[in-house]
Design goal:
Blueprint: H1 14-24, H2 30-45, H3 50-64, H4 70-115, H5 120-129, E1 137-144, H6 154-167, E2 173-177, E3 180-186, H7 190-203, E4 208-211, E5 215-216, H8 217-238, E6 244-246, H9 252-257, H10 260-271, H11 282-293, H12 298-304, H13 309-323, H14 330-346
Parallel strand pairs: 4-6
Antiparallel strand pairs: 1-3, 1-4, 1-5, 2-3
Helix pairs in contact: 1-4, 2-4, 3-4, 6-7, 10-14, 11-12, 11-14, 12-13
C-alpha cells in the first residue's frame, strides 16, 4: 500500500499540530500523543503497514516545509519525532497484541486437538485455519530430547525452517507440547515425518522420535499422538535406544500388556524363583535380557554384560535350575522371553506385582 492510499482519517489533526508547533514551539500534549497512539493501533488493526504510514506523515510534513524558517523547521522536526514515535508505539502494540491473540488461539486449538476436546465439527473448522484438513488421515511424530523445548526454542525454529525449506506450504503443523516437539502431517506423507525425525534428532542433540500410525478424522490425530507417546514410554522402560521408533513396529507390546494381571501372573510364576538367587533377581533378569537381545548368542550377550562366556553360561544354568525353564529350549525360551518383556514393562523386580 502506497502513501497515497493511506486514508486521511489516520492523519486527522496532524497538520494542525504542525501549525501550532511552528507558531508556539510547544511540545505535543498528552492528549495528542494518546490520540496518535490510538490511531496507530487502529491502522495496525486495519492492516496498514507502518512504513507506508510513516511515509505519509513525512510527506504531509514536507508539504509545509518550504515556507518554514530554520527555527520553525527545528520545532517541526521535534514535533514530527514525537508524533511518529507515538503513532509507531500504538501500531507496534496492536501488532504484538494480535500476535499474542493468535498464539493463544493456536495453543488452545492444539490442546483441544491433542486431547480430543471440543466439538469435532468446530475443531475441523478451526483446523483449516492452521493448515490441517481433518477429513484426511493424519499421523503424529513426537520428538523428545534431554531438555524441554517450547515454541520459541532454537530447536523448534531450526526444524520448522528445515521443513518449510524442504516441503514448502504443505499442510503440516509443527508445534510443542509438554516440552516435546510435535509434527502433524497427512498420513500418506511419510516422507515428511521421516524428514522431521531426522531434523528433530539433530536439533535435540540426539533425542528420540516416535511416529504414530495414520488415523482418520480429528480423533485420529489424538490416537496417533497417544501411540507416539506410548512408544516413547515403551522405549524408556525397555531401554530401546533407537533414534526413531514407529508405533506400528511396537504393536506386540501393547498386546502383551493388555491384560496386566495375566502378565503379572506370568512374571511372578516364571521369574519369581529368581528372587532366591544370591544378589536377587535383577542380575539374572539382565542376563536373560542380554541373551535375548543378542539373538541368543552367549558370546555376544557375555560381551554386553562384561562377563566371560563361562560366567555367563553359569548364569544361564542357574536360571534353568531356579525356574525349571531352559533358555536354550525353543518352547521354554518363548515363555522366558515373554516374561522378561513383561518384567521390564511392569518394572519388576523393583516393583512388587
Amino acid at each position: 500500500m502506497t502513501g497515497r492510499e493511506i486514508p486521511d482519517e489516520y492523519l486527522e489533526g496532524y497538520p494542525q499540530i504542525l501549525a501550532e508547533v511552528c507558531a508556539t514551539g510547544r511540545r505535543l500534549t498528552r492528549d495528542e500523543l494518546e490520540s496518535l497512539r490510538a490511531r496507530g493501533e487502529r491502522a495496525a488493526e486495519a492492516g496498514l503497514g507502518l512504513r507506508s504510514l510513516v511515509r505519509r506523515h513525512l510527506s504531509m510534513t514536507r508539504e509545509s516545509w518550504p515556507t518554514l524558517s530554520a527555527t520553525e523547521g527545528d520545532r517541526v522536526l521535534a514535533a514530527v519525532e514525537q508524533a511518529i514515535d507515538a503513532f509507531a508505539e500504538g501500531h507496534e502494540w496492536a501488532q504484538r497484541l494480535a500476535v499474542r491473540k493468535e498464539e493463544a488461539a493456536r495453543r488452545e486449538f492444539i490442546d483441544d486437538l491433542l486431547y480430543g476436546r471440543s466439538d469435532l465439527g468446530r475443531l475441523a473448522e478451526r483446523a483449516e485455519r492452521f493448515g490441517l484438513l481433518l477429513s484426511r488421515a493424519h499421523a503424529v511424530a513426537v520428538a523428545q530430547g534431554g531438555k524441554a523445548v517450547e515454541d520459541t526454542h532454537p530447536a523448534t525454529r531450526q526444524v520448522e525452517s528445515a521443513l518449510v525449506g524442504r516441503f514448502g506450504q504443505r499442510r503440516i503443523l509443527l508445534t510443542t507440547k509438554d516440552g516435546r516437539l510435535i509434527c502433524i502431517a497427512p498420513g500418506d506423507q511419510d516422507d515428511v515425518l521421516a524428514f522431521f525425525a531426522k531434523q528433530a534428532y539433530a536439533a535435540t542433540d540426539g533425542g528420540q522420535v516416535a511416529i504414530g500410525r495414520p488415523h482418520p478424522g480429528a480423533g485420529g490425530v489424538v490416537h496417533s499422538y497417544e501411540e507416539a507417546l506410548n512408544a516413547l514410554d515403551l522405549a524408556d522402560r525397555l531401554d530401546i535406544d533407537d533414534p526413531v521408533l514407529r508405533a506400528a513396529d511396537l504393536l506386540v507390546y501393547p498386546v502383551l500388556t493388555r491384560d496386566r494381571q495375566a502378565m503379572a501372573d506370568l512374571v511372578h510364576n516364571t521369574l519369581g524363583p529368581l528372587r532366591t538367587a544370591r544378589g536377587g533377581a535383577q542380575p539374572l533378569v539382565d542376563t536373560l535380557t542380554a541373551y535375548f537381545d543378542s539373538g541368543c548368542v552367549a558370546a555376544e550377550a557375555a560381551r554386553r554384560l562384561n562377563l566371560s562366556v563361562r560366567a555367563f553360561t553359569y548364569r544361564l544354568e542357574r536360571i534353568h535350575k531356579l525356574t525349571g525353564a531352559d533358555p536354550a529350549d525353543p518352547v521354554h525360551r518363548y515363555t522366558l522371553q515373554t516374561a522378561v518383556i513383561g518384567a521390564r514393562l511392569l518394572g519388576w523386580p523393583e516393583t512388587d506385582l
